[in-house]
Specification:
The protein is mainly beta. It is about 5% helix and about 40% strand. It contains 7 helices and 48 strands.
């Protein structure tokens, strides 16, 4: 009998079952189940050591456990501890636990608030636990007042994100430059902020948006700031305390014993051990109804809602705290109480206007000599009248140069008209200008400036120099473009003009291959001397052509223009809409600006009284109206000055966007 016949059939089947899966390991794939709703719930705190809102905390290590795995995102930008510490805490994530090492010695009898902003997110979906706060006190109580508001850009009233709002108990004006704040927080995306767990004190309000996180205002003119001219003083205000933790002002004459409780339950401050021999008879104590009718035996709790409550010591039925010396506690409150009366605390919903100061002292930011005959001076601030650039190493003729400045008046061009002066390789000047000091002192500063020009000798430049130079002309309207009926045709040149010849120029209307010449005038821009406006009375819906023969324009360097030609068409009056704006309630100088959908000011009007303003020749589109309260009557918006206590000039926007249509006039009323 063969060996195969001796093996039982059951044994052969068992061997096949065991061996076949090993021969075909990829026959089956294990696929995890799919589907189900996406997780949108942020992490939740399960426990912490010490518990949140603990008192008498003396350690430096904190552990917070969440209900899921977490990660930290942009912790250095999002996290703020109040009061701020010289050393930033260290953070470590261990699964569901966040471990914090404070790295600093804590101040006695102080409430600390750790605000994580949007730094804590779950590991899988990135759901954000927004503005989670961990609070503890090194003393017996948790301070519980709060201050809230919004920070907006003073120029356009837009909410500002990421601004650090700070409070100081040092009330000197210099404190934002020199000292860390007592409290600090950061604004959210909507520009709003809220500082919790504040003590009863008089505080200074200051806000800062800058490159660093050192809480110091040390770059005036570069960092944006906001301040409140009034100090923050606790008083009776609506909505002046936190709804969950509220200031409890108690007046003590007699104190009954209070059984020890874990932190965060009942009254967190434990009174001193009373004299048992002087304890009143419990039977003589009034019942709860009697106490509610006796004002001197009630406890007014000022919080998010005014509430009158009788504080009863735990496990001491009928025991109450009543009348005498003021003290402050933290007492959890439920929604069962409501009284719409005033509450004790700080004012809320303040508006802070963010602005950049004009930089302190004026100085020359940079100088250039890009061409032989072009000198460029850039200042950090607009130059005041009386500035000068006196030659030191050459003696030019009286009319050796032409001055040009930009609209802001912080950039000055000197165009050298004298050929001998242009040919000098080095020009040295004594540049004098006024520099305003931080204490209103005005003095004249003189800087020595040397400007050199060395012609580059590359092959390309040598070839270009050998060619006859041509004066380039740029038009403000594109070829075959549309010309607005209320605008002039702008011509721009790379250098100032010495002369131009009307006899070599022509402006014509083209009708059925026939041309009709139109009269025009060229006027120089009062600021930018290299720009000219072609002024004429445009005919609507007509084809125009401007032409110029060679040599029509000559610059101060003797360079001539070549042949020029520009064809364009004027719009029809029916293409435009208009806005008629009726102003009322005007009590002072106003600048009314019309702004298009790209944020550009296209029209401006000035008034000091009720009037009607018409903005015509408007293309169909969306427009906003802005009013600037021109307090100093200089016809421009002015920023603020912290040390002088000057807020930026107020701006106001019309309540709605105005949509214009072709051949349509819209009338609006704006009451101030």
């Amino acid at each position: 009998m063969s060996l195969l016949k001796k093996i039982p059939l059951a044994a052969i089947f068992l061997a096949a079952v065991l061996v076949l899966p090993l021969l075909f390991p990829r026959c089956a794939n294990i696929i995890p189940p799919t589907g189900g709703p996406r997780d949108t719930i942020p992490p939740e705190v399960v426990s912490s050591e010490p518990p949140n809102y603990s008192t008498r905390f003396t350690g430096t290590a904190i552990r917070i456990e969440f209900d899921e795995f977490i990660q930290l995102r942009n912790i250095n930008q999002q996290f703020i501890i109040t009061p701020p510490q010289k050393e930033r805490p260290e953070f470590r994530v261990r699964g569901r636990n966040l471990l914090i090492d404070l790295n600093s010695e804590l101040v006695p009898n102080t409430t600390y608030t750790l605000n994580f902003g949007e730094a804590i997110v779950d590991l899988n979906e990135g759901n954000v636990l927004t503005n989670f706060e961990f609070v503890f006190s090194t003393g017996d109580i948790i301070d519980s007042l709060y201050y809230s508001g919004i920070v907006i850009n003073a120029f356009d009233n837009e909410p500002m994100e990421g601004v650090i709002v700070m409070l100081y108990d040092n009330l000197h004006d210099s404190v934002p430059y020199r000292q860390m704040p007592l409290y600090a927080t950061r604004t959210g995306k909507d520009g709003r902020f809220r500082l919790n767990n504040l003590r009863t004190d008089t505080l200074k309000v200051f806000a800062l948006k800058g490159a660093g996180n050192n809480y110091l205002y040390n770059q005036p003119g570069e960092e944006a700031i906001a301040f409140h001219e009034d100090l923050l003083v606790p008083d009776f205000h609506p909505d002046a305390a936190r709804p969950d933790l509220i200031p409890d002002t108690l007046v003590f004459e007699e104190v009954l014993p209070v059984t020890e409780e874990p932190p965060g339950e009942g009254i967190t401050r434990q009174p001193e051990e009373p004299d048992m021999q002087q304890m009143p008879d419990m039977q003589q104590m009034p019942d709860m109804q009697q106490m509610s009718d006796m004002q001197q035996q009630t406890d007014t709790i000022a919080g998010a809602q005014q509430q009158t409550d009788t504080i009863v010591a735990p496990q001491q039925e009928g025991a109450a705290v009543h009348a005498g010396v003021h003290d402050v506690d933290t007492v959890p409150v439920t929604e069962d109480y409501y009284d719409p009366g005033p509450r004790f605390g700080f004012r809320t919903e303040d508006t802070l206007f963010l602005f950049k100061e004009e930089a302190g002292r004026q100085y020359i930011r940079r100088t250039e000599r890009p061409r032989q005959g072009k000198l460029f001076f850039v200042f950090n601030l607009p130059v005041t009248p009386g500035w000068s650039a006196e030659p030191l190493n050459f003696d030019p003729p009286a009319d050796w140069m032409m001055k040009e400045r930009n609209t802001r008046n912080d950039s000055i061009w000197l165009w050298i008209t004298d050929a001998e002066t242009r040919s000098r390789e080095s020009l040295r000047f004594a540049v004098s200008y006024r520099a305003d000091g931080p204490s209103d002192s005005i003095r004249t500063v003189t800087d020595t400036v040397t400007l050199n020009y060395v012609a580059r000798t590359t092959a390309r430049r040598q070839a270009a120099a050998a060619e006859e130079p041509v004066l380039e002309v740029t038009f403000g309207t594109a070829e075959r473009g549309n010309m607005e009926l209320n605008r002039n045709l702008r011509l721009s040149f790379p250098s100032p003009l010495e002369s131009f010849d009307y006899s070599l120029m022509d402006l014509a209307v083209i009708r059925d291959n026939d041309t009709v010449s139109r009269s025009f005038e060229l006027t120089e821009d009062s600021l930018r001397i290299r720009k000219f406006d072609l002024v004429t009375e445009w005919l609507e819906a007509e084809e125009y052509r401007f032409t110029a023969l060679p040599g029509a324009f000559e610059d101060i360097f003797g360079v001539l223009s070549d042949s020029l030609s520009l064809a364009f068409r004027t719009r029809a009056k029916d293409d435009y809409g208009s806005i008629v704006l009726n102003l009322s309630g005007v009590t002072g100088p106003l600048i009314i600006q019309l702004i298009n959908d790209r944020g550009r000011v296209i029209r401006e009007s000035y008034t000091s009284e009720d009037t009607t303003i018409t903005f015509d020749f408007l293309q169909p589109g969306q427009f906003r109206l802005k009013a600037i309260f021109d307090d100093n009557e200089n016809r421009k918006w002015d920023t603020g000055n912290y040390l002088k206590g000057i807020q930026p000039e107020k701006v106001l926007f019309f309540h709605t966007v105005i949509n214009t249509r072709a051949n349509w006039s819209i009338e609006e009323k704006w009451e101030f």
